[in-house]
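Re: the request from the purification team.
They wanted to know what the chain is likely to look like in 3D before they choose a buffer screen. I agreed to run a prediction and write the result into the notebook, where they can find it.
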Amino acid sequence: MKQKRIRSIWIILLTLLLVGSISLYFIESKIFTKPNKEVEVEKEPILEEQPEEEKRQEYNLSLVMVGDALYHTGAYKDGLQKDGTYNFDSQLVDIAPIIKNFDLAYYNQETILGGTELGLSSYPTFNSPQEIGDAYIKAGFNLVSLSNNHSMDRGEKAILRSVSYWREKTGVLTAGSYDSFEDQSRSHIGEKNGITYAFLAYTYGTNGIPVPKGKEYLVNVFDKDIVKKEIEAVRDKVDVVLVAMHWGVEYTHTPTKEQREQAEFLKDLGVDVIIGSHPHVIQPIEHIGDTVVIYSLGNFISGQGDLNKRIGLISSLDIHKVVENGETSITIDNIKGDLHYTYHTAKHTNYRVIPFYKLTNQELGQDVSKVKAEYEAIINKNDKSILVGTLGVS
């Protein structure tokens, strides 16, 4: 009887223990586990991540261009210092502040920089001091054409000395004359402010002095097949293509039929800016489609005496690049043309390139405003969209 009672007590205790455990399990499940479907809190739907719309990116590049650095005897002797060295900084003192405002600055080195060791010379076979290049680089020029009708004046030796000189100059891109086919095929591509550009240069000929056979790299003589090949090689690699053309007929303000045909040819190849030289006087600026054509910048500096040959064109433009939603667009605008004058004394001393906005009647020897109006009319004769007479105060 006593044993039955003890067994009953154990059964009750075990039952109570079992019931308590089950109750505790349900309490913990309620507190610590997620609610079942009937009481589940509604969740926000999970959305797939959408790619962010590409931001609009804008890049800008400014370009200024001047014409021929044509160093006759008086012009290079003007740079001779008392110690026998050469310095040409004073010739550019009035123009350098303008040039330095631009990202890219172009000029045509018409007379080859073979240097004093080769013997300096003037017309008809030029050779100039290399210190000319030093002054132009110091003034801010960084695009230099080496291809013109005087490139072969002093033969291969002068070209090799010129190429060697320019190769040592960092930040300067030259085109048109080389010391090997390998050098000729080097990259002609530069980049500034997020905009890439290609720079090429060609001349119509070399004054009858033959380029040695097998050494055609010495001077880029214009040949349609070669030009087409070289432009097509860079066109899709850059945003903008710039081509310097030594072309036309000397001392005329009117572009020739051949210039216009070649400009159309270059336009069809996708050239954006054509920079012309050789006539030694200024010719108009115009658009052919979207291509800007500067037919002739005239002389930048020379020893030529006529007023026509002492007035040159300084032109500038802005290049804009916009990248948006994977698409790139390029526009060229703000095309300007202004005038400068090569001043020197009657004895061919004190050479200075003076922008017209700083030029006095005494320095010009005539009424500045009258001459300015006459030559500005040439600049936009064929294209009234060109802004004339504005560069100096921009």
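For the purification team: The longest strand covers residues 327-343.
Please add any questions underneath this entry.
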